[in-house]
C-alpha cells in the first residue's frame, strides 16, 4: 500500500465528513430542531465515535490489515458478503455526492451546461486521482482542506457584525424529540468517518487519530452551523436549499470583491472532487479485497466511475431527491457504522488473533 501519513489520514477523515454535511444538512436540521444544531452535532459525533471504537476493537486483534481485509480473511463467506455490502454502500455515497456537486455547479457557475457533461468531467477527474494513487489524493487534501478551514473562520469573522445572538434562543424549543431527530439526520453523514479504517491499516489509522479527525470535523460543523443560525436565523435557514451558500453571499469585503462566494466555492469544489475520488477508491479497494488479482487503479476505476455517473442521474433525477434521501440515509449509516461492526466484533472475539 502507498504510504499515507497519519496527519494526512486525519485530514481525509475530517474533510470526508465535513465537506458534504455543510452544504446538504443545515436546512433539514433547522426544520426539525430549529436553532438546536449546536447540541445536535456533538450527539451525532458521539455515536460516530462509538462506531470508530467498535471497528478499532476488531482491527487491533488482527494487525496490518484494514477492516475490509479482516472481514474477508476471518469471516470467510459472511465476510465477503459484508464487504460486498460496504462496496454497494459507498457506491451509493459516490452517486449522492456527485449529484450534489453537479447541482451546486449548475446553480452557481454553469447554469447552461448539461448536468451529464458536468458529472462526467467530475468523475473523470476523480478517476484520474484514484489512478494516481491514494498518496497523491491525500497530499491534495493536505493542501486544500486547511485553506478551506481558515476561509470558514475568516467568513465568520467577516459576518460578526451581522450576528444576532438571540437567534440561538430558546434552547430545546422542540424538546427531546427535536434533539433526537436533528441528531438522527446528522449521524447519517458524520458516521461516514468510518472510511478511515476501511482503507488504512493500523499502521496509518488508530483510534486516537480517528477521534481527532472526528473532533476536527465536528468543530468545523459547529462553527458553520452556528454561524448560519446567527446570521440567517432558523426560520430562514429551514426554507433555503443551501443556507451556507446564501450566508457567504452576504459578505462584501470591498467594492471589487463583492462575490466572496466564488472564492469559497473555488476551495470547496476541489475538496468535493477529492471526496468523490475517495468514494471511488473505497469501492475499488473493496473490489480488490474481494478479488485479489484486480488492481483498483487500473481495472475498476473507470467502470465504477461510469456507473456512478449513470446512477447519480437515475437515482436522483432532481436535487430535491437528495434532500428526501437524507431522512432515511441514517438507517444505512446505522447498519454499516454500528450494527455490522458490533456483530463482527462479537463473532471475531471467538477467533484466535495471530501473534504480533
Automatic annotation (TrEMBL):
Protein's GO biological process: spore germination
TM stretches of this protein: 9-30, 36-57, 77-95, 115-134, 143-163, 183-200, 212-233, 262-287, 299-317, 329-350
Pfam families for the chain: Spore_permease
The entry's keywords: Germination, Membrane, Transmembrane, Transmembrane helix, Transport
Subcellular location, record wording: Membrane
Statement: the UniProt record of this protein carries the keyword Transport: yes
Cellular-component GO terms for this entry: membrane
The organism's place on the tree of life at top rank: Bacteria
Recorded topology in the membrane: Multi-pass membrane protein
The UniProt record lists the keyword Flavoprotein: no
Family under the similarity heading: Belongs to the amino acid-polyamine-organocation (APC) superfamily. Spore germination protein (SGP) (TC 2.A.3.9) family.
Protein name per the record: Spore germination protein YfkT
Organism, scientific name: Alicyclobacillus cellulosilyticus
Amino acid at each position: 500500500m502507498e504510504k499515507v501519513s497519519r496527519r494526512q489520514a486525519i485530514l481525509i477523515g475530517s474533510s470526508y465528513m465535513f465537506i458534504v454535511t455543510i452544504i446538504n444538512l443545515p436546512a433539514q436540521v433547522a426544520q426539525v430542531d430549529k436553532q438546536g444544531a449546536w447540541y445536535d452535532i456533538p450527539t451525532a459525533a458521539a455515536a460516530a465515535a462509538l462506531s470508530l471504537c467498535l471497528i478499532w476493537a476488531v482491527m487491533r486483534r488482527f494487525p496490518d490489515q484494514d477492516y475490509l481485509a479482516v472481514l474477508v480473511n476471518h469471516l470467510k463467506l459472511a465476510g465477503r458478503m459484508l464487504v460486498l455490502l460496504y462496496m454497494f454502500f459507498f457506491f451509493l455515497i459516490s452517486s449522492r455526492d456527485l449529484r450534489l456537486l453537479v447541482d451546486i455547479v449548475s446553480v452557481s457557475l454553469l447554469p447552461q451546461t448539461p448536468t451529464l457533461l458536468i458529472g462526467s468531467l467530475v468523475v473523470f477527474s476523480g478517476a484520474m486521482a484514484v489512478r494516481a494513487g491514494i498518496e497523491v489524493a491525500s497530499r491534495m487534501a493536505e493542501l486544500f482542506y486547511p485553506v478551506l478551514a481558515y476561509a470558514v473562520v475568516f467568513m465568520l469573522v467577516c459576518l460578526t457584525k451581522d450576528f444576532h445572538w438571540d437567534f440561538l434562543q430558546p434552547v430545546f424549543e422542540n424538546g427531546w424529540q427535536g434533539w433526537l431527530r436533528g441528531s438522527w439526520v446528522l449521524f447519517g453523514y458524520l458516521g461516514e468517518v468510518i472510511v478511515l479504517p476501511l482503507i488504512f491499516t493500523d499502521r496509518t489509522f488508530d483510534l486516537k487519530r480517528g477521534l481527532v479527525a472526528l473532533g476536527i470535523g465536528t468543530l468545523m460543523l459547529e462553527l458553520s452551523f452556528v454561524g448560519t443560525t446567527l446570521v440567517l436565523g432558523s426560520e430562514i435557514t429551514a426554507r433555503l436549499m443551501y443556507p451556507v451558500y446564501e450566508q457567504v453571499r452576504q459578505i462584501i469585503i470591498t467594492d471589487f470583491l463583492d462575490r466572496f462566494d466564488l472564492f469559497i466555492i473555488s476551495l470547496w469544489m476541489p475538496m468535493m472532487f477529492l471526496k468523490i475520488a475517495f468514494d471511488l477508491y473505497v469501492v475499488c479497494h473493496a473490489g480488490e479485497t474481494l478479488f485479489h488479482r484486480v488492481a483498483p487503479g487500473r481495472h475498476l476505476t473507470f467502470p465504477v466511475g461510469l456507473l456512478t455517473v449513470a446512477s447519480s442521474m437515475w437515482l436522483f433525477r432532481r436535487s430535491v431527491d437528495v434532500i428526501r434521501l437524507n431522512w432515511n440515509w441514517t438507517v444505512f449509516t446505522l447498519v454499516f457504522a454500528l450494527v455490522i461492526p458490533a456483530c463482527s466484533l462479537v463473532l471475531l472475539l471467538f477467533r484466535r488473533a495471530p501473534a504480533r
